[in-house]
Amino acid sequence: MGETLKGKTLFITGASRGIGLAIALRAARDGANVVVAAKTTEPHPMLPGTIYTAAEEIEAAGGKALALKVDIRDEAIVEDAVKQAVEKFGGIDILINNASAIQMTGTLSTAMKRYDLMHSVNTRGTFMTSQKCLPHLLKADNPHILNISPPLNMYEHWFQNHVAYTMAKYGMSMCVLGMAGEFRDEGVAVNALWPKTAIATAAISNVVGDPEMLEQCRKPEIMADAAYNILTREAKGCTGNFFIDEEVLTEAGVEDLDQYAVKPGSPLLPDFFL
């Protein structure tokens, strides 16, 4: 069961670039169908990629793509995107909740507008997209939901420097905890995946803006290969886990993790949630 993703339909939020796009391209190599559900339709001055360039890359890699402009804060838009995905591809097998808003600021320097954005994209967006995809996932052969969110550690340390962002990301992880239990008997796998190290994405280079720091990151492909490993497992025996990319690959027998380094041999920055 599920050795490849050929013919499977993946609904990926925030898939126009970064980790979402890397997961899409890995699935496309098997001949998967990918719904690119993201908001960028016009090139952004600081961030590469639109839903259309992502769709072109997916098709060039061997997959089929459906580019949909989706603001995952808007219920009607998400419902419509799911409907269009099912009309085009006949169902949804896998949901990747990857879209995320980040601002790592303390309490006094977090504008409420930014707080609302993080909570409505990360926690609410993940809950809502899962809710809208679940009726279709429940009909799929090997259904998976994978949230790109960190393991839950209820200690002061993980909250004190950016409590608003931590709450918003932990909300995604709480969806894993709740939905894994809720849908276990119906065979829907619900898991989280998070990187062991910082990942070099355009969003991070914007936040960091330091080329030397980027050299201490890994490429998004490590997350894509780890996600692929999880998504090709049998859903029934694989749910409620908080996976770490490096651990997934090491357990799968991957010995050369240097292949994922932006600058092989460079010291790696640990992720700020681990």
Structure write-up:
It is a single chain. This protein has 9 helices and 7 strands. β5, α5 and β6 form a beta-alpha-beta unit. By secondary structure, the chain is α/β, with parallel strands linked by helices. A 7-stranded parallel β-sheet has the order 3-2-1-4-5-6-7, with helices on both faces. The chain is 41% helix and 12% strand. α1 packs parallel to α2, α3 packs parallel to α4 and α8 packs across α9. The radius of gyration is 17 Å and the shape is globular.
What is the structure about, briefly put?
This protein has 274 residues and is of the alpha/beta class. 41% of the residues lie in helices and 12% in strands.
Keywords:
274 residues; alpha/beta; globular
Give me the secondary-structure category: alpha/beta
Rg for CA atoms: 17 Å
Biggest beta-sheet profile: 7 strands, parallel
Percentage of residues in strands: 5-15%
- Mean of all residue-level pLDDT scores: 95
Termini separation: 33 Å
| Total beta strand runs | 7
Q: Biggest sheet: strands side by side, in what order?
A: 3-2-1-4-5-6-7
Low-confidence stretches: none
- Helical stretch count? 9
User: Which term fits the overall shape?
Assistant: globular
